[in-house]
Amino acid sequence: MIRQGYAPHPAADAATPPGAAPASPYDVDPQSWLLSLGEAAGGKLLEGVQAIGVSAQGHGLLTLDAGGALVRPALVGNDKRAQSAAADLIDSLGGRAAWAQAVGAVPSATQAVAKLRWLARTEPDAARRVTELMQPHDWLVWQLLGRPARRTTDRGTASDTGYWSAATGSWRPDLIELALGHQVRLPEVIGPAEAAGHTPEGLLISAGTGETMAAAFGLGVGIGDAVISLGASGSVFSVHHEALVDPSGTITSYADATGMHLPVVHTLNAVRALRGTAELLSVDLEELSALALKSTPGSYGLVLLPYLEGERTPHLPHTAGTLTGLRRESMKPEHLARAAFEGMLCGLADALDVLRGRGVAVRRVFLLGPAADLPAVRAIAPALLGAQVVVPQPADYAALGAARQAAWALGAAHGTLSPHQPPLWPAAASQVFEAGEELAVGQAVRQQYVAVREQTHPGAFEAGPGVGQLG
């Protein structure tokens, strides 16, 4: 890292005219992204720079008319307005398995394909004017290049739309017509080390990619690595050599930024289970962690199934969390605190086992998010996850991944780097935690958790994930 700059995006309501209704947080003027980019790149940040890479949120949609102008503000974020539209689309194609087979993903409210169906139903006049679709990173690259006739995207961003198949490497225009009602123009999907073009000033712009794919590139994850992101909800993804078609829709089959694949499994509950327990005990997360470490593995028989918001993995959308094993000796704050950490990590281990059960090798697990710094997470995770745990130091890995992609594309253009294999960068600074002698104890805790899950929700996993494998 040589230089870095930062600027926030303007708040959604900052651009609302006086007297007008507040803007939806899901409707954004993308010009604000360009303004922020210009602010972040101010001063001498770009002095000597020869190439630029762009990473941006994958869950976005920009609708353009025949002249290349926006039909409406960009749709971004976890836009729950499209939930019913996503459900309609699932039924329209014949169910979850049909979508998984078609594009490796079952539509959700966040995906562009569901936003298209929502637009067609709620803003039909705008929908009819749409002749072209872009994702946020596509649009930013296009703007940086001076809005050329050629529009490009990459495999990673394309795989997040719901109308591109990572398995076949092709668009599915029939699914766009199913959602929107007519055909549209789509960007050209270029290779990971290809250039999208050059700016009027001569700077190379690389293909760009989505935030998750760029973060994986920035972290330097490869075959044998999995990444667990600890937010309110959780996600588990790994690098794999092929797209995984999952008829249940539990696995979402993304492409990565290097020519490989990123199978992802989502959970609805991760740190929200810790926060809920902390509020119940009137402590903060650091105090909850300290309490948990006063207990012992297995939490004196307490088991928390952390399905506080329903759950995606396993597919239990209408359930609630469950606390079992209450006895007089277990009814202490430290045992409840530990049960929360064990429940969260066992839920994520279930998601990890879905990938393992499909042949994904997992030797190291990267833990991301502020909760990865909690001592209880670091102490408990290796044994429950059954792998070495790596906690990288905080950094903007999505931006690092975009910069690496730009360097790779520049080298490939000059003939100094292979376009088929990215160069090796030094590993991110991190702390490593091993299960050691605790592995057997940790696996016994997993068995306790799995037994309670199966008793409470029999057959929730079609094949019932066991400890360390699916089956």
From TrEMBL:
Superkingdom classification of source: Bacteria
Keywords, A to Z? Carbohydrate metabolism, Kinase, Transferase, Xylose metabolism
What segments bear the compositional bias annotation Low complexity?
7-25
Which Gene Ontology molecular function entries are recorded, alphabetically? kinase activity; phosphotransferase activity, alcohol group as acceptor
Query: Which parts of the sequence belong to the Carbohydrate kinase FGGY N-terminal domain?
Result: 47-209
Decide whether keyword Kinase is in the record.
yes
Q: Which InterPro entries match?
A: ATPase_NBD (IPR043129), Carb_kinase_FGGY_CS (IPR018483), FGGY_C (IPR018485), FGGY_Carb_Kinase (IPR050406), FGGY_N (IPR018484)
Tell me yes or no: is Kinase among this UniProt entry's keywords.
yes
Q: Where is the Carbohydrate kinase FGGY C-terminal domain?
A: 226-410
Gene Ontology biological-process entries: D-xylose metabolic process
Segments for region (Disordered):
1-26
Q: What family is reported?
A: Belongs to the FGGY kinase family.
What is the protein's name according to its record? Answer: Putative sugar kinase
